[in-house]
Amino acid sequence: MLGIIKNNRSNIVMENYFYFICLESNIALLREEIKLFAPELKPSFSKKNFLTYKASQLPDYDFAFALEWGLNNDVSQESIENKLKCTQSEKIPEGAPSRAYLKIAEACQKYEINDPSLHWIEFGSAPGGASYYLCQNFHQVTGVDPAEMSPIVLNHEKFLHIKKPIQNLRPSDFDFKGYQFITSDLNLNPKQAIKEVLRCSQFFRSIQGIFMTVKIVKKDHVKHIPKFCQSFRNAGFKHIQKCQLPSHKQEFLIYASKQ
Ligand SMILES: C[S@@+](CC[C@H](N)C(=O)[O-])C[C@H]1O[C@@H](n2cnc3c(N)ncnc32)[C@H](O)[C@@H]1O
Q1: Is 172 in the same domain as 120?
Q2: Predicted local confidence at residue 85, as pLDDT
């Protein structure tokens, strides 16, 4: 049991407890993020999936590697487990070609992207878990990947495959240019992946938003997170949000939107 956390009211400067719920596999990345971008938070106790810090006020920073965070004076093991369960509501259906189905399902649910008339393009689409979800829920999906797509996606009436690396894409590769949403799950280093995705986003005038999975495999790369977000602002995306999804591995999501 974690027991009950209470404010230490005997201090002259009153300190609050902040809790973070995170994926166990990404706890080192979250610690690094807090150290770099919210140094005013002072570590308190921690457990699997759970960190606490003390500070006088909530930091003005959104964390990429926390599922949830906030001020709390009363956190029990049971309430943490309930919070973790709530964030893991999506299930991978039989037949989905990969676990990436969950990542896009969770992202669409979190940001309420559910207009069935949307046209999507996915960069890094093979074998097709995410495209499978998109075909089931939206109007049309184009997947870009030099690797093979699973037949269940390849033969789907809503799906089109462009079997090329993103670096080779040119506007002439697309007859249709009315895509509204991009999702990217490329196995490339984040800097190159973001550069290529933003380059290709310029081919389409009607882009409203981008879901960008950013893979951070080394603690040392956490320091670049603000720079990655800034690239989207520089490309004209007004709202940049970042978050950890329950199905993420060593990665996080940037959601860049124009409205
Ligand atoms: C994590 S997997 C994508 C999983 C996929 N989103 C799904 O739903 O099944 C990463 C993919 O990126 C692709 N990839 C790597 N480099 C690429 C490039 N330069 N251009 C396009 N795709 C690339 C790989 O072939 C691989 O299929």
Answers
A1: yes
A2: 66
What pLDDT, in 10s, does the model give residues 125-172?
999 999 999 999 999 999 999 999 999 999 999 999 999 999 999 999
For residues 6 and 17, what is the distance between their CA atoms, to the nearest angstrom?
Answer: 8
Number of structural domains found in the chain: 2
| CA 96-97-103 angle, 5° bins | 70
How far apart are the CA of 239 and the centre of ligand 1, in A? 26
Instruction: Verify whether ligand 1 is closer than 6 Å to residue 125 (CB atom).
Output: yes
| pLDDT bucket at 74, cuts 50 / 70 / 90 | low
Examine the domain organization and report whether 123 and 242 are in the same domain. Answer: yes
Burial degree of 86 (CB within 10 A; 0-12, 13-18, 19+): exposed
Higher-confidence residue of 204 and 57: namely 204
For ligand 1, what atom is nearest to the CA of residue 127? 9
**112 and 180 share one domain:** yes
180 falls within a domain: yes
Do 107 and 229 have their domain in common? yes
ipTM of model:
0.99
